[in-house]
Amino acid sequence: MSFSTPDLSDANPEAQALSPILKNLGGKKIFWGKIETLQCPDDNSFVKELMNSEGNGKVLVVDANGISTVALLGDMIAEAGVKNNWSGVVINGYVRDIDILSTLDIGVQALGTMPIRSEKKNQGRIGVDISFGGLTFSSGDYVYADNNGLLLSKKELNLS
Asked: Hey, what's the torsion of the CAs at 84, 90, 92, 98, to 10 degrees?
């Protein structure tokens, strides 16, 4: 299934657009799905845990408060996400292993890249409302992303 966020926005004016802060870095340039939220500052323990669980086509939306000192996603965790049927990951933070991420069948949008991995401290909160880029994301909302940007919708949009 293919779509463009501009066309989706035109057809669904209630869908909200994220401020243009993220880069499309994964191998899957168009992705969408029901979202699961995660708030974690500089610890990717729960990113790893979720990517290693069944994703059912969901998109993980992570708020790292824009912290630029570590990456919260790398090739190994992203590969687990592909294996476990995650459609994508959206991070208000940074990723690494970009050359490999760009070849994997998973959508990745993030602020940019940082080569340093995070420590595992088991810190974070799953399923909480998170806000960044002018939007508030809740578990169960829907995200639609492509090279034009990211749309958030409270309901599933018709892609046909």
From this structure: 80
- Model-level pTM? 0.97
Nearest alpha carbon to residue 15 among 160, 117, 110, 155: 155
Alpha helices in 62-157 (DSSP H): 75-83, 98-101
What is the pLDDT confidence band of residue 146, given thresholds at 50, 70 and 90?
very high
Q: What CATH code is assigned to 5-153? A: 3.50.30.40
Which residue bears the tokens 């909160």? 125
Burial of 120 (0-12, 13-18, 19+ CB in 10 A): exposed
| Mean pLDDT of all residues in 83-108 | 98
